[in-house]
Fold these 4 entries.
Entry 1:
Amino acid sequence: MDTVSKILDMIHVRSTVYFSKSVMAPWGMEVVEQPDICRFHLIMAGSTWIRLSDGSEEVELHAGDYVVVPHGKPHVLSSEPGLMANSTHNVPGSEALPVPKFEPRPAPEQSTQLLCGYFRISSFAPDLIPERLPGLLVVRAGESERPGYVSDVASLVQHELDTMGAASLVILNRLTDVLLFCALREWLNRSLAEGGALAALSDQRLQRALSAIHDSPERNWTIESLAQVAGQSRTAFAQGFRRAMASTPMGYVTQYRTLLARRMLTETSLALDDIANRTGYSDTNAFSRAFRRVIGTSPGAFRKSSRN
């Protein structure tokens, strides 16, 4: 598996599409801050400007373009650059799922149609990706490394909006999952190629160590044994690993084991002893202590809440 695939495979995401609206110029809409989510906007027709409320970034988007606003930063969508908002938009908390509001597509002479929603990203190494994302992650329909895929997905989205029926909301949510991963793939490829903060991930020595952890999480890994796999000294390996992964080697091992445990607790009926053995812990007590340190609750409680 290539480096980008390995990184993306670490990320679990759940999309919620809740808002489709047609607007006529002049218009402006403020989207309030909500740090625990990533907002997204797909321009179905027309054009819009988007700017972060702190003024650090402002770009124009056209039909077929797609933008992700990481960390739920406050921002303004408007028909003209710098235009003040005349409405405010918020998302209810997780305890009250938003009721989707979809409007029919505008006629060609009308201005803009937006499809909006948000992602909740769950990653076992949160500092690796989300903390390094730009303020606005933009994918343009005509400038993608794979031309046409955004417009292809947008066409499927538009079809669902036009023919809303059974399971349409589920399909819309999954289609926007695809858009997020495509956007992340483009950003990762650029970052790795341009020597950015993630470029160290392309180091073959680091990749050997990561592959060893992923392939055999049950092994009794130490910094020394991982450094040996990488073919480096203990010090050089530890320093390079932290620089690339925003985590110590053993911290990463714990986080990866916890990710696997979460999946097994959610998706299987394996006993806790079995999960402990498969994730490198000598007994259930050691597994439970490590799991609670990372997740904040016991494995049993996590399994019960995930099934509710």
Note: The CA atoms of residues 157 and 172 lie 6 Å apart.
Entry 2:
Amino acid sequence: MMMAAAGSIAIVPGSRSHAVPQSARDPAPAETPQTSAGRPHTWSTAMPPRGDADSTRPASSSVPIALSLTSDAGWQPPDAAPEPALGAETDAATPFGAKGSRRLLISGFAGPSTGDRNEPVIAGGMGLSWFIEDGFAVTQSLDLLAFDQRTSVRAGLGYSLTFQYHFLRRETWSLFAEAGAGLLLTVGDVPEEGSFFNFMPQAALGATLDVGRPWRLMAGVRWHHVSNARLYRTNPGRDAIAGFIGASLAF
């Protein structure tokens, strides 16, 4: 038997000689990677026993490596955006008065009747406004009304359909004109010597003001008429000039 330089070549009689690279027997230690937090990762390797049949294979093909990567810091997904408050997303993405936008209304009005009667009316209710074109809205509302008359106070329920045009719109305010009509049912006759069923033509001028999205305040002056259009024997009718105030919410 002949021996060459140690660790290089082995010659055995009756067998083939095999070259075993030094790097395959004594692999250099791998560098230990660092985490973003400065802690080392843990590497785990598993190497099967070397045999003569596999000794000439490159180390990269004969040595399977199982890799285990751990870190105390862990992986964190990106922070999700917070959910917007009610109405905020819609109002932020859609300018006020844009076509297709909708608003919930809460409003009321009060004022004296015209002429020598001086019989005030007080009303309050809720409505839904839908902008069918930019700056032009259709509003439906239900109101509770009270009429202070000379000899009695009459309460009633009214439904109104009005058309509202915001002829001047800015980011935080607008000016509008409104006109429409409604139906009124009362407990007793309104006005006195009138009827319990009446029509309510009405018109208004007003303004809106952004007080923090999605809310807007609204205020103005309203002309409010009550009459039965001569459906009954008498039709005295009544008119009132009232101030109104309210708020609207985008949704």
Note: The longest strand covers residues 173-190.
Entry 3:
Amino acid sequence: MPAYRHGRQTMKAADRIATRKSPGAGSVTPGDRSRLLLGLLIAVCLTAVPGCAFSRIFPRRKPDPLPRALTSDATLNDIMEHLNEQRSRVMSWRSTDVRIKASGEGIVAPKLTAALSVESPRNLRLMADSLRGLEVDFGSNDERFWYWMRAGSPKYLLTGSHAALSTYRNNPLPFPPSWLMEALGVIPIDPSGVQLLRDPATPDQVRLVSSYQLPGRSVQRIMLVDLALGEIVEHALYDDQDQLIASATLSNFRSVGQSALLPHRIDLQLPTSGQELNLTIGSIEVNPALTESTFQMTGYPNCEVVDLDQQLRGGSALR
């Protein structure tokens, strides 16, 4: 069995000191000078003297711990029912406060800001920017998926249909859109064929193992569940040689709204392309009203559109 990793998880203070003018002559009074001096001393104390640190004077209140979701002896039915009940509360979510750190082969802009919108069952849009402008557009709707990257050479917009994706001999994407939607928590987990594996050394974690169909082959899907949290903290796909195809490690779970618990850190590993993406997510809006245009493919100037379905009909090497 391959090894598994887990994801990882300041307070800004600004002091403004204002001098006041006396209402009559417009000069600074002795009392004003005293208050100014006191303010300066406080500012120095807060920023330079550890014993007077702001956090010690006004300690931040730690959030209340989340109640335990599942017992360590929970059955497979208990776990699947809980996971899918949680997912039924989140049909969509959106964040315009995503920071991406990318590393690996072909990475030109290692740090990006992004907007991410997700909606069950197939709607997805990730648009990432750098100082140069838009760098990446990865999306999916009910019928098609697409991928565009500014740094691509030659420049092209890769697109195909979900219906034909299963017939491609070689998967042109680093991961299937359906797997990513599953990892993002907006579609239910199919319980059929799932096996539950326990490790006595980690009683609060279990693995859900099943087969997963990729274009032209069946692979192994492994989901690592934190029973105390009641959430999947890692999604991974492995080939028949136990080599990692792709993984998504989820961490920094926070309550969003009244009933949703969502990760604010997602680490994607893509060994086949030699890349790793770290997504740090700020504020999240749950079940927003998303328009159809959010999930429509966009054309880009001086960019060839490569339709995988047309290549398939023409006997492309993708078959």
Note: Helices lie at 30-48, 54-57, 76-87, 162-165, 177-183, 308-313.
Entry 4:
Amino acid sequence: MKKYKGIWPVVPTIFDEVGNLDLDGQKRTLDFLIDQNVDGACILANYSEQFSLSDDERRLLQKVCIEHTAGCIPLIVTISHFSTRIACERAKSAKKEGASIVMAMPPYHGALLKSTPQQIIDHFKEMGDVGIPIMLQDAPLSGVTLPVKLLAEMATSIEMLQLFKIESAGAAEKIHALLQIADDHITGPFDGEEGITLYADLVAGATGSMTSALIPDLIRPVITSYLCGNSTLAKDLYDKVLPIINHENRQCGFRATKEAMVEGGIIKSSYCRHPIEKLRPQARKLLIELLQLHNPAILTWGK
């Protein structure tokens, strides 16, 4: 069995009603996840709206989240940056403060500035020299194509590159192919994208999933059932929650978790910084209706 498995949700960044960091709400969000028996969590990711945060806010959130979860759950800190130097500085900071893992996408900036395969290898090698386990995030957002052959070469040549979060198109096929080549070097094959292809990815060999923080209590049993050999139960559980995952992934994005947390009394505001628009009332209404069919903890934990 792989070292890293289970559900590792992305922690949303909580703002107050005027867009300032709400650290009390941030801590309550972490407490909620800990109470759902998540296996770990990830901060400062794209679903954490990391692109809306200043460097000072990133440092503050990293410190607060690591200190608050110490001894409870391991944390992954996202360190993605086009600059190798800055990514390494972020890795050093995360390691110093007690993070368990760092996560990074390949270097890119905008739609056209992308790295060559050799630059990607060098980027992750330098991060590896920091001495903290790395999760590579293969996500559509970067626009960088990462062939299986390149990922396998990196897995076998960079000791600290131990985890792969595959959420590009054809994730299951890519996970399967990568494990066929580099299985012995990978301690955490994960998927993402809110778990929208989770069952197929588990069949392909994934042992963990980095979903949102919306329904970890409903998704974790899918993973644990499958890993324990009960694929029938896993599929049945997954079929039940798939409409929620689909609505989140295709209609709401990262706004879904915050809206549900407000509904459940966990946080006070679902604010997202401009230019992110507020979720349409119709989409929010359907989200809550879909959730209520299964009564997840997010709707009751804070009441």
Note: The longest helix spans residues 231-252.
